[in-house]
Design goal:
This protein has about 350 residues and is an alpha/beta fold. The chain has two domains: about 10-65; about 110-355, Purple Acid Phosphatase, chain A, domain 2 (4-Layer Sandwich), CATH 3.60.21. It is built from eleven helices and eleven strands. The protein has helices at about 10-25, 35-45, 50-65, 125-140, 165, 170-190, 205-215, 215-220, 220-230, 265-275, 345-355; strands at about 110-115, 140-145, 195-200, 235, 245, 250, 280, 290-295, 300-305, 330-335, 340-345. The strands form two sheets. A six-stranded mixed beta sheet has the order 4-3-2-1-10-11. A five-stranded mixed beta sheet has the order 5-6-7-9-8, with helices on one face. β1, α4 and β2 form a beta-alpha-beta unit. The longest helix is centred in the middle third of the chain and has 18 residues, at about 170-190. It is globular, with a radius of gyration of 25 Å. About 35% of the residues are buried.
Length: about 350
């Protein structure tokens, strides 16, 4: 028997969501359609990437497992009820509010966060080896890399064609080989039962830009890049799109309404002001952790920049001024969508803990 395209647990969860909308008054055949309404809710919660994917799941659940939402029970229009006359009591409305002493609820989840690695041909893999050893020693619930694991200078549009800078760039296949060596170095140290996610960064996105600009030469670059991550158990997530895990949003760098990156010396202040949920990002290579208060008793979010996981003290050639870069990894403890603890391990500290 061939392996089903859809697991039964995922099929049941899909049908259950449609059933909830049927029970709420939506009609299976529409309008309004219970399946369309459930698909929009699933997209908003991050359960699926597109509404079409949800409808495909629902159809597959029926074809593979015979699962489907039930139409609402017909109401007996001749049902009679006994009238009960009783004096009306004054309604008492109670609103439960959090207080300063109300702790968050739910399990505490531990995430190992890895910032920008920027591996390239000739660069040492020591940082990711130490990160893998730390994962083996501390056993986090999952590992999330924030992107820019690969530099992909071969796909950069910055050097002018024919310039000396352009001639010094490595070829794409050389950078892909360096990426696989780096992923393999991490994978040899990190336990295989720990889930791995990566939100692709603007440097990985260079492959997509190059494929669009020169499809005859670079049309398969994005596929080859995603396949490289997949070979080493990494689940990739599109550049600029949010990855929600345990109520916290992970992204390489938040984008504003114009599709541009939040930046500046104190970008965390702008991100904290605009965000409605806790955020973990990277991109500018400077570790910061901050709790941002919001209106309401004990209401707040947490924001964390992971810094960079490059070799200590190394900078990219585009930097010509003061960096303030930090080199290391972060242990994050998350509960109820709040980062309740963040421990930054500097690369020098990791070297002392686990060896060079």
């Amino acid at each position: 028997m061939p392996t089903p395209r859809l697991s039964r647990d995922l099929a049941e969860a899909t049908v259950k969501l449609v059933q909830q909308h049927v029970d709420a008054g939506y009609i299976l055949g529409g309008p309004p359609s219970a399946i369309e309404a459930a698909a929009k809710a699933a997209l908003k919660s991050g359960f699926v990437k597109t509404t079409r994917a949800f409808t495909t799941r629902y159809r597959t659940a029926g074809e593979t497992y015979g699962l489907a939402a039930r139409p609402p029970e017909p109401k007996d229009q001749f049902t009679t009820y006994e009238a009960i006359h009783a004096p009306l009591s004054k309604p008492r409305v109670r609103v439960q509010a959090l207080t300063q002493s109300t702790p968050p609820e739910g399990p505490i989840v531990r995430v190992l966060g890895i910032g920008d690695v920027h591996c390239k041909p000739g660069r040492t893999h020591e940082p990711v080896i130490l990160a893998g050893r730390h994962a083996a020693a501390t056993k986090p619930d999952r590992v999330i890399a924030i992107g820019d694991w690969a530099s992909l200078d071969s796909c950069s549009f910055h050097p002018a064609k024919g310039s000396a800078k352009d001639s010094e760039r490595p070829a794409f296949h050389e950078e892909l080989a360096a990426l696989e060596d780096s992923l393999d170095a991490f994978g040899r140290e990190c336990p295989e039962d720990i889930p791995l996610d990566i939100t692709l960064g603007n440097h990985e996105h260079r492959a997509w830009r190059m494929a669009n600009a020169d499809p005859r030469v670079a049309g398969d670059f994005p596929l080859r890049l995603e396949q490289a991550f997949a070979r080493y158990r990494w689940k990739t997530h599109e550049y600029g799109k949010w990855l929600y895990r345990h109520g916290v949003g992970f992204v390489h760098v938040p984008l504003n309404a114009m599709g541009r990156e939040y930046g500046g010396r104190h970008s965390e202040n702008t991100i904290g002001n605009d965000a409605t949920h806790s955020v973990v990002w990277g991109h500018d290579h400077r570790h910061r952790f901050k709790t941002v208060p919001k209106l309401g008793p004990n209401n707040r979010i947490s924001i964390c920049n992971l810094g960079t996981c490059m070799p200590w003290g190394e900078v990219e050639d585009y930097n010509v001024g003061t960096t303030g870069w930090t080199y290391g990894i972060c242990d994050l403890s998350i509960q109820s969508g709040i980062i309740i603890a963040c421990r930054f391990y500097d690369m020098l500290e990791l070297r002392q803990m686990y060896g060079g």
